[in-house]
Amino acid sequence: MLVTLMIQSVTFNWSAETRSLVLGSFYYGYAVSQLPGGLLSTYWKSQHVFGLTVAVSGLLCALLPFMAECNVNLLITGRFLMGLIQVCLPF
Q1: Which residues, including other chains, have CB under 8 Å from residue 12's CB and lie 6 or more apart?
Q2: What is the pLDDT of residues 37-65, one digit of tens each?
Q3: Domain spans, the chain
Q4: What pTM did the predictor assign?
Q5: Nearest CA to 60 among 74, 79, 73, 34?
């Protein structure tokens, strides 16, 4: 069975300010959650924190294209939440 995936190219007509807000929203969330993320790892086991982080981050990453098509504010919120969540990922 042959499966064909059609990828639709979508262009958003966002201003430079909106584009920079979308790109910066991840880093705003990341910066805000530095201290709470460290404290969270002292209360919970690292396996639980890591598993929850990967699961929620993967779900948000899968939903980002739909958020972008719905509303730019929803996309900014989603990227902010990704920054909040991904602070707990070890590097």
Answers
A1: 68, 72
A2: 777 777 877 777 788 888 999 999 999 99
A3: 43-86
A4: 0.78
A5: 79
